[in-house]
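User: Could you check the structure of this?
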Amino acid sequence: MKVKEICEKLELNVHVQGDLDKEVHQGVVGDLLSFIMRTAPEGAVWVTIQNHVNVAAVAVLKDIPFIVLASGREPLQELIDSCRKENITLTSSKQDAFNLCGKLYELGIKD
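Assistant: Sure, the predicted structure tokens are below.
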């Protein structure tokens, strides 16, 4: 499913438009950056509450094109700037990570 479609279906607030036509088939959820570095599949959507510039650095390292900040987190300007520079789609949602992941699963984003 394309990033753009996921953003629309989950009614995400888009802060940085990366490649909205990028296909995403897998996801990862987590807030511990070392865990994400070890386990995240390349090209995944990442659901997190972490809100600092290192999130973008890990996304670049793991080739993650799409980040969703859960639980009403609004991104810091330094995260916005880094995601813009790296062409990473950065979004947020008032929904918590549990519910977001359930909805992603229903959309066919698995593993």
